[in-house]
Amino acid sequence: MNIGQAAKISGVNAKLIRHYESIGIIPKASRSDSGYRIYSEVDVHILSFVKRSRNLGFSMKEIKKLVSLWRNKSRASAEVKSMALKHVDEMERKILELQSMVKNLKHLAKTCQGDHRPDCPILNGLADQ
Fold first, then answer.
1. Which of 36, 70, 74, 102 has the fewest CB atoms inside 10 Å of its own CB, making it the most exposed?
2. CA atoms within 13 A on the CB side of 112
3. How far apart are CA 21 and CA 3, in angstroms?
């Protein structure tokens, strides 16, 4: 199939498909006699895998490793589990950071009168180091 068809089926746009190919996330596509990229069902399956991995927040470096592990049928699942749990820990840390940011911003907004006066605790809070 051509890149447009692969994009439609996988849900990954053509520009990203070319990018993923250039950085080695997916194998180089074969070419038609006229030079157009040709993708197989396996390629599209890898693209779908990459898209789902991105949707779960994995980095491109992690996705490259996951694709490699996925394609390696003699892999140890322990490595995959370790990667997933490490990613969960990172996401939980980010969630705590975001919750703290929300709490701080809510506090600043609560202390602001939000009227015509120039005094603004939000700006003052952002200016404090």
1. 74
2. 18
3. 12
pLDDT tens digits, one per residue of 41-91: 999 999 999 999 999 999 999 999 999 999 999 999 999 999 999 999 999
Q: What is the pLDDT of residues 39-48, one digit of tens each?
A: 999 999 999 9
- CA-CA distance, 103 to 13, in Å (whole number)? 37
* Residue 129 predicted with pLDDT over 70: no
Full-model pTM: 0.78
The Cα–Cα gap between 59 and 37 comes to 26
Question: What's the start-to-end Cα distance of the chain, in Å?
Answer: 56
Q: What tokens does 125 get?
A: 């809070």
Do the strands 37-38 and 30-31 form a parallel or antiparallel pair, or are they unpaired? antiparallel
Angle at 112 between CA 111 and CA 116, to 5 degrees: 155
